[in-house]
């Protein structure tokens, strides 16, 4: 059992190193959270939109296996999901869905899936490598599921630019600390974005408390937690999602769009 686990781990490290060594043009950014429903998909779609407005070509991968909903947020009807590629039923290029937003492309997921069939086979990390090897995009944003199941771990293992979305809820903070603890074992940093948080300072103060807690519990000293910024709760964010529209496009001059832009600016400064 142990040797099996360590073999899996060393294979993942190998795959991750492969991604680093090849220094692809496409920057891989993985958006995750401990707790579900904190705003990962909302923030992913809005960041993709803001990146595209800067002239970048952006691919978004719906990696919330079993709960995929980015096709709803981008209001597209994909012909194929990326599982068609993984299962050998279609070419990678044929699983890319063009959205109505210039320069945004979706690798759609599926919303019900018996995923035990792919357990420990590294199909997801190999799939990410295949997208990077296309050399077609400036950014690949991966929207993972919540929590720390094996699939989320696989998407995290292959990425050096990980953004955790959290709220100030005690349960979300407990979960994000569990993520910090896990990532501190073999990553160099985690970026934090606070959603449903009305002031920049509140998010910053809580980030600092998480860093202090990490020090107290002797997490690896060179592991960095980088605070990116805050996004307020805003009913128009939920309303635009329900209408299958992107908030930052519909409300380009809103204060919450400005907060998203600041998060993006900070993210771009922090990615390798
Ligand atoms: N800043 C916000 N203000 C108001 N509603 C939000 C905000 N962020 C997300 N939501 C809403 O919260 C719900 C969950 O968001 P979602 O992005 O689907 O979370 P996750 O992907 O983490 O499960 C959605 O209904 C979404 O519209
Ligand atoms: Mg989601």
Explained architecture:
The chain is α/β, with parallel strands linked by helices and 272 residues long. The chain has one domain (2-270): P-loop containing nucleotide triphosphate hydrolases (Rossmann fold), CATH 3.40.50.300. The chain is 45% helix and 18% strand. It is built from eleven helices and eight strands. It has an eight-stranded mixed beta sheet, with helices on both faces. Strand 6 (162-166), helix 7 and strand 7 form a beta-alpha-beta unit. The radius of gyration is 18 Å and the shape is globular. The model has no long low-confidence stretch (mean pLDDT 92). The protein binds adenosine-5'-diphosphate and magnesium ion.
Outline of the structure:
Keywords: ATP-binding, Nucleotide-binding. The chain is α/β, with parallel strands linked by helices and 272 residues long. Helix content is 45%, strand content 18%.
Question: Helix and strand layout, with pairings?
Answer:
Blueprint: H1 2-21, E1 27-33, H2 40-53, E2 58-63, H3 70-73, H4 82-86, E3 96-98, E4 104-107, H5 123-134, E5 139-146, H6 150-157, E6 162-166, H7 170-183, E7 189-195, H8 200-216, E8 224-231, H9 235-242, H10 247-250, H11 255-270
Parallel strand pairs: 1-5, 1-6, 2-4, 2-5, 6-7, 7-8
Antiparallel strand pairs: 3-4
